[in-house]
Amino acid sequence: MGRVYDSNLLEATLPRLELLMFAIFFTSHVFHFILKRFSIPLLVSQILAGMILGKAGLGLQADYRSIMFGIDSDQLFGTIGGFGFQLFAFLNGVKMDLSLIRKTGRMALCSGVLSMVMPVLFGAVTTSIVNSYLGLLELDKLSLSLVMLVHSMTPFPVTCSFVSDLELTHSELGRLGLSAALSSELLTQFLACNAFLVGIFYQYHYQGALKTVAIATAFIILTVFVVRPAMLWVIKQTPEGRPVRDLYISFVVLGALVSGLIFQFIGLNMFLGSLAFGLAVPAGPPLASALVDKFECMVSGVLIPLFMAMCACDNDESKF
Question: Does the keyword Cell inner membrane apply (predicted)?
Fold first, then answer.
């Protein structure tokens, strides 16, 4: 027989999480049912659902906010969302084929580089003009520059999501767009790493920067000369037409999570570590396709919608 507790069921973390998940999925699909007629991707509906269900929407009501956003809710939701996005970055690395840039030619490479460089140039000019007219403080100037740089970037996972929603993945236009986005992503991550290193240098002097460079270099060498050959060995050990052993799949996913932990430890973006580890996975069957088949549904269907909606939930526009 079940027991009846005097305490409120929604005081527990799990029921609140389940209730929020149901609300996010229901609201986002209601929006998508309407917006898909205008070819608007599901991502937009997920963000809108997060804004409505978040702290700047229904969260303005005290009772709703106390139920859905308790003391430990931010940490829990942030952990789940971060875990989901880390796996999403890993899977996107698995699905990336670096030879795609070479196959599509210079047009994709130039488009990808220009899509990053041109917004930065125009943003730098605009930032300089704003600074000269408004006389901003140094901290405000730095914040404005960071905002400009962030808005100049187009993450590869976002492009993948839009291309997939528009059903252009296997078209020539889709391949060209993905190649350009991949080129832009590689340049973006290179610049981001350099920016992190500069920040570490100013904060911890050259010892901290050297430590970060040394560990990152060791990680890349280990990934290229140890991890990737090990994955190629796994592929050779798998008979043609047979699935990869679950033990190997588990080790690969564990490696992706550990890679993110290493990058977090040295002060870089943890998602970059998972993405880099995913790039080491040989494209195509049997290993890459097995990873995508096993985790794509959970990551893209559950964790990433939660991550997108929860990011919008945390935005409290009433404070601006």
Answer: no
* Spatial distance between the Cα atoms of 277 and 279, rounded to a whole number of angstroms: 5
**Given the structure tokens 């809710």, which residue do they identify?**
73
| pLDDT tens per residue, range 269-301 | 777 788 888 888 887 788 888 888 888 888 877
CA-to-CA distance for 259 and 281, rounded, in angstroms?
Answer: 13
Give CA–CA dist 86/134, Å, rounded.
39
- Beta carbons within 8 Å of 317's beta carbon, 6+ residues apart: 56
Q: 81 with 311: CB under 8 angstroms?
A: yes
Q: In 10 A of CB 234, how many CB atoms?
A: 20
**Six-digit token string for 250:** 């588990």
d(CA 23, CA 67): 13
CA dist., res. 90 & res. 271, Å (int): 8
**Ramachandran bin of 97, using left for φ above 0, alpha for ψ from -120 to 50, beta for the remaining angles:** beta
Q: Domain limits of the chain?
A: 72-314
Flag whether pLDDT at 116 surpasses 60: yes
pTM over 0.85: no
